[in-house]
Write a structure and sequence with these properties.
The chain is an alpha/beta fold. About 35% of the residues lie in helices and about 20% in strands. The protein is globular, with a radius of gyration of 26 Å. It starts with 9 loop residues before the first strand and ends with a helix. About 45% of the residues are buried. It comes from Smittium angustum.
Length: about 700
């Protein structure tokens, strides 16, 4: 491949190719740090917030919808301005320091607290107080350690102990989950509720809006107080700590760029979660990269916050918005109401993930192209014409069709919508393109990881290349490295293939207290091995094609990449989810499949009907347990595998049909970003896997 060919849109660092690695690629516009001048006066997330406070103190910063318990509805958004939040941030940060100083007696402990750079766990759904807590911690050079429900009790206990957190800040509905396991958390000294724990006490002062009502009644709150006291755990609410901080007079203790900003534990597909140590410089770099060329000082962007702030994508999206002096509205907590929240807020942008975008797709197709009669016919004609224009490079807008049809479709989300993005996982190209033309906006995919503060590569504006994650983001260096055990080489023709390596100021410091695991992925000269396999395309863009981390070896010495096989199976209409596994003592893999009920039930029913056998009235679970259906399904998988050019040793020899989908909360087989937790799935299905091999 010629890296100097006309039309190559990435900058190639001269003489950077070494044995086993491709040349280093950079952003074509921002080739070096000196060329990145936008927001160069800011060096920490603390700088981002306080600069915006100074520039637009009266602009709305964070808002939420107040719940009406009488009729079970949510009202309009109410906001706190940058100046109002700044006061709360100052007081809350100082209050956390003062609270801890009050709790200890020895000079050594007081000195340790005063030195800062210790972590505070945050456990809550997205809400304004999550953001306020984040900024309060930064104001005192403390860092956040994010917790979330899908971790499970054992992982939560592990994280609190591993990170040595002495304080947990959480919503009131999470307090009992902490207290239930407090005996196994010797470092924990205090819990701060983001909801009021007192009666007859105003939950806000001045012009600030009230907190979201807690589901707990007074009696339940009293029980929590008594429970905490019995365990010698301090139990406060945010208002108490703000008042304590205001009275303390403790000044800000601003962080340095290399100070820890957040300790973010990856949800983990194997073993205990790892705590990625990310600094202020890491997240400041990511925010600056995301804001390049988008600054409008007269009217900042408006975003809906629903992506979990316990993960890098949601946190980075908020930091970009804050850098652009924007406004953040928090969803009501029910993802099924996200469109209603957006219509109420009227955001200018929407950071998407495949699951939510697929839901939008289903909703809109049902209302438009799949509508009956004349309405459906008109929408199909309009979408067909707009898609043709999109593929011809004419963009996502159409003067005629937008005016009479698609402006109303866009208004289902927001009439002010200017752009959308997709990240965290791959998404079907037809879904992206349909949403591009129906929402009438540019919509690109990006690539980033927890270890890079969600920064890495992103598509250029107007690029609709399927499966493409774009070009290096400003400040990021990208190269590929050989993966010989999977037969991927940077010398492959026509395009180089290999593992993605990233380097730049957004790359994390390492895993907290895990030098061995850090050394496995982070080289001494700063290159982070992502575990993702990619191809460099003819124009210099990059496409993900495989994963390295999950490979295993069969008894005959052949390596299997189960994620690649699962991706192949996912293209079969009968397959909704799949999990491929194999033992090193066996010479073939086996598979657990969750069939797609929409296609599977009629397919299986017809097979049994043709055989003259009981169909179970088309019951999904009954059909998955039928042995003849299992054999027919296995034959379908084998045939699909051969047609997809799978190797002989990749063809599964036995399959288990599972009627319960893999999910985040029930069987906990998916991470919060909907990736399969392979280690957990292996344990969950161990007996079934053994039975499949006994077949």
């Amino acid at each position: 491949m010629r890296y100097d060919a006309p039309g190559f849109k990435a900058y190639v660092v001269p003489n950077s190719a070494v044995e086993g690695y491709s040349p280093i690629l950079k952003n074509l516009v921002y080739k070096d740090d000196a060329s990145i001048t936008e927001h160069s006066d800011k060096h920490t997330v603390y700088d981002i917030f306080w600069s915006s406070v100074k520039q637009v103190p009266e602009r709305n910063f964070v808002g939420h919808r107040i719940y009406n318990s009488t009729n079970g509805t949510y009202g309009p958004f109410v906001f706190q301005t940058y100046a109002q939040v700044a006061e709360r941030v100052t007081n809350f940060g100082a209050g956390i320091i003062q609270m801890r100083l009050n709790d200890v007696q020895s000079k050594e402990e007081k000195s340790s607290i005063a030195k800062r750079n210790w972590g505070v766990a945050v456990y809550s759904a997205n809400r304004p107080e999550w953001n306020i807590t984040d900024k309060a911690l930064s104001s005192q050079s403390l860092f956040s350690v994010a917790l979330y429900d899908t971790l499970g009790e054992s992982s939560m206990e592990y994280i609190l102990n591993h990170s040595e957190c002495t304080v947990v800040v959480c919503s009131l509905d999470k307090v009992h989950k902490i207290l239930k396991n407090v005996d196994t958390m010797p470092n924990l000294k205090a819990i701060i509720s983001l909801d009021s724990i007192h009666t007859n006490v105003p939950v806000a002062t001045g012009q600030l809006p009230p907190f979201v009502p807690s589901p707990f009644n007074t009696k339940a709150t009293d029980v929590l107080k008594q429970w905490a006291a019995s365990k010698s755990i301090g139990f406060y609410d945010i208002l108490e700590i703000e008042a304590l901080g205001k009275a303390s007079g403790i000044p800000h203790h601003p962080p340095l760029p290399d100070d820890i900003y957040t300790l973010m534990y990856t949800s983990g597909t194997t073993g205990n979660p790892k705590g990625a140590v990310s600094t202020h410089k890491n997240y400041m770099t990511a925010a600056r990269s995301g804001a390049m060329g988008r600054f409008n000082p007269d009217s900042g962007p408006v975003m809906i916050s629903y992506l979990p702030l316990a993960h890098c994508y949601g946190k980075s999206a908020e930091n970009v918005n804050m850098l652009l002096q924007g406004t953040i509205g928090y969803f009501c907590g029910d993802i099924s109401m996200i469109l209603e929240d957006c219509r109420e807020l009227q955001p200018t942008g929407f950071p998407g993930i495949p699951r939510i975008l697929a839901r939008f797709y289903d909703t809109i197709t049902a209302m438009t192209v799949n509508a009956p009669g004349l309405k459906g016919m008109i929408y199909r004609k309009a979408v067909e014409e707009k898609l043709a224009n999109l593929y011809a490079g004419k963009g996502s807008k159409h003067e005629f069709w937008d005016k009479i049809l698609f402006d109303r479709v866009r208004a289902l989300l927001s009439s002010r919508l200017e752009g959308m993005g997709s990240g965290s996982a791959s998404i079907e190209p037809h879904v992206l393109n349909f949403l591009r033309v129906t929402f009438c906006v540019d919509m690109g995919e990006g690539y980033g990881l927890t270890e890079t503060a969600s920064n890495g590569l992103r598509q250029a504006k107007g690029d609709i290349t399927p499966g493409c994650i774009g070009f290096p983001a400003p400040g990021m260096q990208v190269r590929l490295g050989d993966v010989p055990e999977m037969k991927y080489f940077v010398t492959d023709s026509p395009y180089p293939r290999g593992e993605i390596y990233l380097k730049g100021p957004a790359v994390f410091k390492g895993y907290f207290k895990e030098k061995e695991k850090t050394d496995e992925v982070l080289s001494s000269d700063g290159w982070f091995a992502t575990g993702d396999i990619a191809r460099i395309n003819e124009d210099g863009s990059v496409s993900i094609i495989d994963r390295k981390k999950s490979i295993f070896k069969l008894s005959q010495g052949e390596y299997l990449a189960p994620e690649r096989m699962e991706n192949t199976f996912s293209k079969h209409p009968l397959v909704m989810q799949s999990f491929v596994h194999g033992y090193s003592t066996k010479n073939y893999p086996v598979c657990v499949v969750v069939p797609d009920p929409v296609t599977f039930v009629p397919w299986a029913t017809k097979i049994l009907s043709d055989l003259g056998e009981d169909t179970g009235n088309g019951n999904y679970e009954y059909l998955t347990k039928n042995e003849k259906i299992n054999k027919a399904f296995l034959a379908e998988l084998a045939d699909h595998g051969r047609k997809s050019k799978m190797q002989g040793y990749e063809i599964v020899r036995a399959v288990h049909l599972e009627h319960v989908p893999f999910d985040v909360e029930t069987n906990r087989l998916l991470t919060p970003t909907f990736k399969l937790k392979r280690f957990d799935a292996m344990n969950y299905y161990k007996d079934i896997i053994d039975q499949l091999y006994q077949k």
